[in-house]
Amino acid sequence: SDRAIVIGASHAGAQLCASLRQEGWVGEILLIGDEPTLPYHRPPLSKTYLSGTSSLDDLLIRPPDYYEKQGITLRHARVTALDRQARSITLSDGEEIGYATLALCLGARPRRLDIAGAELDGVHYLRDASDIEAIRDRLADTRNVVIIGAGYIGLEAAASLRTLGGTSVTVLESAQRVLQRVTAPEVSAFYARVHSEEGVELRTDVTVAAIEGDDRVRGVRLADGELLDADLVIVGIGVVPNTELAEAAGLAVDNGIAIDGSGLTSDPDIVAAGDCASFYSPRYERHVRLESVPNAGEHAKVAAATMCGKSKTLSALPWFWSDQYELKLQIAGLNDGYDEVVLRGDPVAGRSFACFYFKEGEMIAADCVNRPKEFMFSRRVLNERLPIDPGRLADPESSLAELLK
Ligand code: FAD
Question: Where in the sequence is the domain holding 56, given as residue range(s)?
Fold first, then answer.
């Protein structure tokens, strides 16, 4: 067969199909996804889609007629099995389809809350457009929203709901501070301050013991016995990569479907891309599995080239963004193992600053809030591994252009 099958019709899958055509794939392309929509941008879900300022049509990754024009067949179905010997996949209705080359763009799913009451009506997650639609349908008869988890997605949801108004918003976090896993204490303190200025009630260092209610959610019980009123609970406690299909077929999995620098899995006829894939990063000297749109796009482009017999390698610097209120956060690099933080601007009183992370004297990452110039600067420094003097960087009078010389 000359058929390329791509499973998962979201950021990675849509880009991979487009790149296959660009790289010269002339055979059939079959894109299979289990959501009932055309591929759409996921980041706006917790931002403009939740606050009601964008519609699903605004979010489409490609216009509706794109797929047919490019000869890409989109099927809404769930793939339940993969037979590597027969080179075929099976759909949930039992149909088997053969492939010449296969791409797994399976993404990730929300980690479920594992406590009493978690299945009650009114407990929601944030992953698909349908999740956000269900939340929005409930808002009219909701007074108190409790969000569990103060990561980016939980905080974005809090900001969108405050912007909408009409409900109280409480965010619960079991760690000592918001965004603890991903940022420096200075950045956490900044976001905690802004959210409380915007009217969000933030409770860190709390353990959720149970969700309570009858036919629907009524409250959230904390481990110390306190009951918080809630008619809507939104859970944002991280994601789990969708690796089951790959695992069952005997592919190597390491916190994600393991891929090499060309996007190949442990089977030379199968690539993987996006949130479901993990790759060994020479720069970070470990397997990394990233959850971001730029990462899904890069994986997809490299994997498509590989499927067409060309050679490209993963090399992009990780980057990410988060929008909350009027704050545009742009993140470059990964900050693991940092031993020094340098600030430019004032995170304590202002709403615009940059936080640069250093490790053994080298800049490894930056969080830039309403600081596009610092973000461009940090990407350049990180890409080219330029030496930067932290003392001079910390001086707000020093020019970024001078620092690069
Ligand atoms: P996914 O988008 O998860 O897509 C995988 C698709 O495969 C899904 O449609 C799934 O239903 C389908 N699928 C899985 N298994 C099967 C199967 N067996 N058969 C058929 N179909 C299957 N990233 C940023 O860079 N910036 C942001 O600001 C940002 N904000 C976000 C906000 C929210 C609310 C969420 C949920 C994510 C956000 N992200 C953000 C992360 C970003 O959306 C993901 O990194 C990106 O969607 C990954 O794309 P993907 O194609 O790898 O996986």
Answer: 4-109+239-307
